Amino acid sequence: MSIAFTKMSGSGNDFVIIDNREPVMENSAKRDFVSKICVPKLSVGADGVIFIENSDNADFKWDFYNADGSSAEMCGNGGRCVARYAYERKIAPKKMSFETTAGIITAEVKGSHVRIKMTSPEDLQRNLEIDVNGKAFKVDSLNTGVPHAIVYSDDIANEDIRGIGRGIRIHSQFSPAGTNVCFVQKQGENDLRVRTYERGVEDETLACGTGVVASVLLSSLTGLVKPPVRVQTQGGEFLTVGFEKTNGDGDFGEIFLEGSAKIVFEGTVVEL
Length: 272
Description:
The protein has helices spanning 27-37, 76-88, 161-169, 209-221, and strands at residues 3-10, 13-19, 48-53, 60-66, 95-100, 103-110, 113-117, 122-132, 135-143, 147-152, 180-188, 191-198, 203-205, 229-232, 238-243, 255-260, 262-269. The chain has a 17-stranded mixed sheet that branches. It folds into two domains: 3-118 and 261-269, Diaminopimelate Epimerase, Chain A, domain 1; 122-252, Diaminopimelate Epimerase, Chain A, domain 1. It is globular. Strand 2, helix 1 and strand 3 form a beta-alpha-beta unit. By secondary structure, the protein is an alpha+beta fold.
């Protein structure tokens, strides 16, 4: 085995990116490869793997996998990372489009920062009551490429992200696919802090782009924030979400996510 890869980080969300336009791996081998290469200490370690493929509809297509080998329709931070990778490798211009299961995503590279236009959110649900181990949680939910349940917190630093997050993630309300779970606390006039339990990773991650977007949009419906909104992630970095003012009906107009996308290192996988 000899597969070249690039390790990237989008605000603490880390990914292995592989150029598969001239195939280095068959589709049938991807899930097993991903589940092994994403394991920390035993391999490269990552929250997910992105394969860049050829597209007839955009500059390129991605094939995205969570750390457990499951597929995901969309990932905001992964989108920003793959956009910078594609620009640096001359696969796409600074202003580009790429194909995902969630639809065509447009992006603009600004040095080490990337701004992407998100797909229109779906499946707005508000004021759900979710029971986890005998305790009721009031939850809002929105699909911003992948589904996210939002829990509003007054003490986000001390929340049981893994315990509560896992309980909501597998709750029957969100079956069979499950949901990501974001904990949200207002920090300033138009500032939030967000912590996310991600399905597929099955743990808290340092950042989640689609989760940040869902958290901002749902918080705007409650009157907590107005655009643009700055969000602090668990990794300590900040993401900015811009959108058009909503009337409360779930139509947010054009939605943008912007933040850093860092190239951490490049290497070659020899053994797994």
